[in-house]
Amino acid sequence: MKKIIMFLVIIGAFCGIYVCGNNLLNLPNSSNTNTLKFVQNVSESNIESSNENGNENSSENGTLSLLTNNKKVKDGYYYLAQETKELPNGKTFSHLMYIDFKTGKEIYLCNNSACNHYTENCSSVFLNEEFKRASLLFVFNDKIYILSKDQDRDGVSVATMGISNELSSKKTSSAESSITSLYSINLDGTGREKIYTFDSLQTVEDFVVGDNKGLYFITKKLTTQSDNGYSYQTSSERNLVFLDLNTRKEKTLFKMDFDDEISWKVIGTSNRKLVLYGVDFGQKVSTIDKKENSDLYKSSYDVFATLDIDTGKINEIYRIFAPLSRSYVADENNLYFSKDGDKKIIKIDLNTGENIVFANINQNCIWEIIGDKLLCREFALKDKSSYFIDLNTGDISSSNLKNKTTGSVLQIIAESENEVLVLYNCDATYRSDGSFTVNKNYYGLIKKEDLYSGKENYRTVEMIKDGGF
Q1: Are 27 and 100 in contact (CB under 8 A)?
Q2: Quick check: 130 and 192 in contact, CB under 8 A?
Q3: Residue 137 bridge partners (DSSP)
Q4: How many CA atoms lie less than 13 Å away from 20 in the CB half-sphere?
Q5: What is the pLDDT of residues 61-110, one digit of tens each?
Q6: What is the dihedral of CA 388, 392, 395, 401, to 10 degrees?
Q7: What is the per-residue pLDDT across 340-382, written as a single tens digit (0 to 9) for each?
Q8: What pTM did the predictor assign?
Q9: Is-contact 23 65, C-beta < 8 A?
Q10: Cα–chain center distance at 57
Q11: Which residue of 24, 181, 196, 401 is surrounded by the most CB atoms within 10 Å?
């Protein structure tokens, strides 16, 4: 048999710029014991199908909240450390950590003062065999949730060299899926419980939205398409599903394929609607086409829409020709959009679709919303400064705060009501070619008014781990 040599090629996607974060809350005391409880894997009896679009009693479900890609916190920041450690028995794990904004200290999420945090019984220890590297952490209704999942490989291509004719010929097959599970944890780390396991044939996207009754996810099936020496992961049967946290039953609401040849992704929420973004090529375009024919983007349109999750109705609100780079972000009421070279930012009302020029600014690449300000920078990032546009008045302020050692942009990790957690400095070893290796990061808390005005007034966080996040 011929030896198969493979390497991964990540297909570049034309998409908006945004920075991922977690929706996190404070760490109160808890009287619950530190026990592990597990629920049986989901079976057909745990899944309900819906022949009608939407939820019953939707008015009681409340406003939707985007729980992933959200940096707002209450009193502190939870995260699973990137650094992998090894237990005496050889099992690898990551620590669940918490940064208390009041004390300015990082702690292990464990309330046992005698614990060394290197045993499987420690509430801050999360085994990598159970909690996968692409897991999503968020806080909802005074609980920490971790969606344990592998990387979503939709759109990833694998190029093969020296393969047999059988493998290089055109064919389609089911892609191997891994099990995705949802865990809930008390805010002090106790009471860890696996509350739901998705169908092993389903891939769960990196998206979670919540309301008063439960959580919403997008599931799909992945297939592998082989053509001319490449294998591509593509998706089908994308569905919006609802998980009732009381009954722990999953309900399929409706398909996310709307027969418009647009692959939609969720970028925000507005009341009971999802805010969607997609690229319209004017024709059906496969993953292979996007990979091999970059000219497709030269005549494509960026499209934004809202999707009512109670009725399944999709409503296009904005469409624009944007062959170059673009950026966007949405809040509860408005969408903000810009494209490279325009030197302006467009504001679109999510309810009416009406749009106006919100700001004229050279640095019009939208990064995110911090407090009541729109954070913008240069598309080319030759200027690493930050520009803040007041969402209420349109007034613009600038901040020259950057990483003190490398001069890179100030990295914003999370925000409370009055402060922002940032990576503001590092110890780095430089090489002769100008590249460098970061040895240690320094994190700090800064008041929002100081951030907006560029006043260097950091309250350094006392970190346990040099590697940080």
Answers
A1: yes
A2: no
A3: 146
A4: 11
A5: 899 999 988 899 999 999 999 889 999 999 999 999 999 999 999 999 99
A6: -20
A7: 999 999 999 999 999 999 999 999 999 999 999 999 999 999 9
A8: 0.83
A9: yes
A10: 29
A11: 24
